[in-house]
Specification:
seven-stranded mixed sheet; about 50% helix
């Protein structure tokens, strides 16, 4: 479908060709009649054919679709699937690129590093057992390893980007990222760990900290993007302290922290309103609106189906460097056409 789609420049070439062909035919006829009037039919025919051959607009009409076909094919060989030729035409113009944190810049497999009190694990497990969030999955894996039996949760409510709440054994609990932070929690966050708090009736009962690792080569990719004049940003639901710690490891100077899932697309639109082409790189369900809103949406192949469906480019491999390769491929294709 991508190889058969048409870019803006291809449409322009087709418009030019639609005028160019009749003009060339008219000129060829004029040449023929002028030489024929001079009484030289063989020369009239030869010159007419020469005009048609030299001015043939075939190259103009074929160059762009051929370049697009080769570009999308080369991308597929490298694990870069391009859904639409227009994205290939736009990618090299990107001025701002926004990276989601979890699963995009990081491996996406966080592990539990700190638990304030093992007694809270049963309650946390009861609250998180129905969640599909990567952080919840890591916590549930840790709790299952401990062999802790879980109670049932009633009145379960999920707060996107914030946490979950429910009633366990007749008592209401909240587990997530809100609430007051003591010095121990602040210290954990300054190390790039995500800390989630267990609360009941406004009182802090304990916390669990999880940490994720950056993908290999993230720092190099950020430097290369800056060399190309592209401004890299990181967006995350983590608080500013944790976000700054992760961004520092990645070499990213600009961050957007404490952004709720439904706010990501709005952030992308804000950048678009300032002018310039904006790319968004993500992998989760909550990244889909932002991927669709960006001029260039790039989904990690390891992400959710809805994220992949919303993006114009899908990176089949886990390598973050493929983002650079996609931009370079776009530039090479447009230079060739």
């Amino acid at each position: 479908q991508a190889q058969g789609s048409r870019t803006e420049v291809q449409r322009l070439a087709d418009v030019i060709s639609s005028y160019f062909v009749p003009v060339v035919l008219i000129i060829a006829l004029i040449v023929f009649f002028v030489w024929f009037a001079l009484g030289n039919f063989p020369l009239a025919l030869a010159n007419t054919i020469a005009v048609l051959v030299i001015a043939c607009p075939c190259a103009m009409g074929l160059a762009t679709p051929t370049a697009i076909m080769v570009g999308t094919g080369r991308g597929a060989e490298k694990g870069i699937l391009i859904k639409d030729a227009e994205v290939l035409e736009t990618a090299y113009k990107v001025k701002v690129i926004i990276f989601d944190k979890t699963g995009t810049l990081t491996v996406g497999k966080p592990t539990v590093t700190d638990v304030s009190d093992k007694k809270i694990l049963g309650i946390v497990g009861a609250l998180e057992q129905g969640s599909e969030h990567p952080l919840a999955e890591s916590i549930m894996g840790y709790i299952k390893e401990k062999g802790i039996k879980l109670s049932k949760t009633s009145n379960y409510i999920a707060h996107p980007g914030m946490g979950v709440e429910g009633i366990v054994n007749g008592k209401k609990y909240f587990f997530g990222k809100r609430g007051e932070k003591n010095k121990v929690i602040q210290r954990l966050e300054s190390r790039g760990k995500t800390v989630m708090l267990l609360e009941s009736k406004g009182m802090l009962l304990g916390y669990i900290a999880v940490a994720d690792t950056l993908k290999e080569g993230v720092g190099e990719v950020v430097k290369e993007l800056e060399k190309k004049g592209i401004d890299p940003w990181m967006i995350t639901g983590d608080n500013e302290r944790t976000a700054k710690a992760i961004a520092k490891q990645a070499g990213i100077k600009n961050i957007m922290a404490q952004v709720l899932p439904d706010q990501k697309a709005d952030k992308v639109k804000e950048f678009k309103e300032r002018g310039g082409i904006v790319a968004f790189v993500g992998d989760g369900i909550n990244d889909a609106p932002a991927l669709a809103s960006a001029d260039v949406g790039i989904a990690m192949g390891t992400g959710t189906d809805v994220a992949i469906e919303s993006a114009g480019i899908t990176l089949l491999n886990k390598a973050i460097r493929s983002v650079l390769e996609a931009i370079d491929l776009s530039k090479a294709t447009m230079n060739t056409r």
